[in-house]
Q: What sequence folds into this?
């Protein structure tokens, strides 16, 4: 009954920007979700790579409830402790430079685009084909996908998209390039790992031409790949990176983080955000980072990721599997969106498709070995072929 009411409200009140699956979730714990009728689901999507610390982790719940009863918002015109601590923690745990806090992945990339323009006024951008950097106009300009871009033309000029090839990248970066923006593993693009030689070529080209190398770690960050940040498993260090999704445990938190050696910063009057670094969202992010930074959890992400990948590779209908840690993509011979619906309805398993034949698995990082076994068993009963 309740789901029918929500479908009605969706039709009468919401712009139809999302295609929802027919389920209403009302509770979550760890890697489990429950719907309005009490049915239990195993979650291998984590709110699209967001609930890294698991649903309603007690540390996050305590931090948020403590903070919300003391102070919710005063703005960036004043000092509050959680936001400052969050900037410090993000910087120390990654590139060591200055941080701009915001509320989402797209916003973090907007800040990165402005940083690059501060770095080289009027400069252009190089991005990879298949990239996804967000839906706002700047981030969309960096997302070279015709069906997403074309209805909203004209976009920001100056964005060149190249294939993930060292020679193509080297040729595309010039003295007029302000930044190269790369997801070290393309998430929405189907979990495509950008090869090391492409990242090295990008680093060298940026150094040669005085451009910034910026990693978009919105999806790969916060422990997702088995290190706190994905760049830590690559042979290069970027000049800046953008993060969001998993750092906030479901609260809207994003950030642009620069490297200690980065000479460029956004300065007073350049940029801002009313909500950014607010005490409640920052408290959530601090608690969430506390959970996903532990060595034990990161080691478990690597181990269980390998187990899930190996198990997937053995299922009939699975053509190829790729990924790092608990960010996994699988190409199947069957119809991926149909499998997603069957998984939900028949097996109470929450998964996701990034394309007609690609399934994506980004479970909460706190998922247990038993739950991975259980997920593989449920997947084996689905029409993957
Ligand atoms: C790599 C990457 N960058 C940016 C974004 C945009 O993040 P948000 O939806 O928080 O704006 C996403 C979202 O999927 C993403 O995967």
A:
């Amino acid at each position: 009954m309740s789901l029918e009411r929500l479908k009605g409200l969706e039709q009468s009140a919401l712009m139809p920007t999302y295609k929802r699956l027919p389920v209403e979730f009302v509770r979550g714990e760890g890697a489990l979700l429950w719907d309005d009728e009490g049915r239990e689901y195993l979650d291998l999507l984590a709110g699209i790579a967001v609930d890294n610390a698991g649903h309603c982790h007690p540390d996050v719940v305590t931090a948020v409830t403590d903070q919300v009863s003391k102070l919710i918002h005063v703005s960036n015109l004043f000092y509050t402790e959680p936001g400052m601590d969050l900037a410090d923690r993000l910087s120390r745990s990654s590139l060591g430079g200055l941080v701009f806090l915001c509320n989402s992945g797209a916003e973090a990339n907007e800040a990165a685009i402005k940083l690059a323009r501060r770095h080289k006024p009027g400069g252009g951008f190089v991005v990879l084909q298949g990239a996804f950097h967000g839906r706002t106009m700047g981030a969309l300009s960096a997302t070279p996908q015709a069906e997403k871009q074309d209805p909203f033309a004209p976009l920001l000029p100056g964005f060149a998209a190249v294939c993930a090839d060292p020679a193509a990248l080297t040729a595309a970066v010039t003295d007029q390039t302000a930044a190269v923006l790369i997801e070290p593993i393309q998430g929405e693009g189907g979990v495509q790992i950008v090869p090391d030689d492409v990242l090295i070529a990008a680093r060298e080209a940026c150094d040669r031409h005085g451009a910034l190398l910026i990693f978009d770690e919105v999806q790969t960050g916060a422990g997702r790949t088995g290190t706190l940040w994905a760049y830590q498993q690559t042979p290069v260090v970027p000049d800046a990176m953008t993060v969001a999704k998993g750092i906030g445990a479901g609260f809207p938190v994003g950030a642009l983080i620069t490297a200690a050696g980065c000479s460029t910063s956004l300065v007073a009057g350049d940029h801002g955000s009313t909500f950014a670094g607010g005490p409640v969202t920052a408290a959530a992010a601090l608690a969430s980072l506390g959970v996903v930074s532990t060595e034990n959890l990161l080691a478990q992400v690597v181990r269980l990721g390998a187990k899930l990948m190996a198990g997937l590779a053995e299922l009939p209908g699975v053509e190829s599997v790729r990924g790092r840690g608990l960010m996994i993509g699988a190409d199947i011979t069957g119809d991926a969106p149909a499998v997603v619906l069957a998984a939900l309805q028949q097996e109470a398993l929450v998964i996701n498709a990034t394309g007609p034949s690609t399934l994506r698995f980004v479970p909460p990082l706190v998922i247990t070995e038993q739950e991975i076994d259980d997920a593989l068993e449920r997947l084996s009963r689905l029409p993957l072929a």
About this structure: Residues 104-106, 109, 132-134, 183, 187-188, 216, 218-219, 244 surround pyridoxal-5'-phosphate (CB under 6 Å). Residues 295-314+343-352+376-385 form one domain. The chain has two domains: 59-292, 295-314+343-352+376-385. The mean pLDDT is 98.
